[in-house]
Each structure stands twice: as C-alpha cells, then as structure tokens.
Design a protein that fits this description.
about 100 residues; about 75% helix
Amino acid sequence: MTATTLFSYWVYQLPNFVLAVVMYTMLGRVLLGLFVDPDSPNYIWRFFCRLTDPVVAAIAVVTPKATPPVVVWLFGFVWLFWLRVALLYGFLLMGAVPKVS
C-alpha cells in the first residue's frame, strides 16, 4: 500500500482513528480508575477524564442512574467498539475501504 493509496482513504481512516483513540482511552480510564481516586490531581487521569467525559455523558443518558461509574465506562468502551464495526461495515458497503492485496 503506497502513501497515495493511504491518503485516498482518509475519509474512513480519520474517523476510525479518532474512535479508536477514544475507545482505548476509555479502557485506560477503566484500568486507571482501579488505582486512582476519582478526584485525583494526576495529570494522566485528568486527561483521560477530559477526553472521555463527552462519551460517558452520552452513555449515562441511556444507562440507569444506579449503575456504578466503572460499568458506564465499560459500556462506553463496548459502544465505541460497535460504532467502529458499524463504520467499517458502512464503508465496506460503499466500497470506500482499502482492499487487501
């Protein structure tokens, strides 16, 4: 795969990359949440929270209020995974995904 081929599929690659970053940051938040207090001044924890809070807020709307935050974060990870799968499937149907040769 050449660089021109890679750049010609940026419409698929960019959203997929952004979703992957948020998804794995959500998983990192779950794992780090086991060791760090929720109001910790740790800069890595604050970055994870700042990046994933919009997703957590969207997931919290459809999740019961009695659910612990860690479970909401895990649901966010799963929802982002399935959103990436749906994105791939949609682009596959449109023929806009790089072909494996």
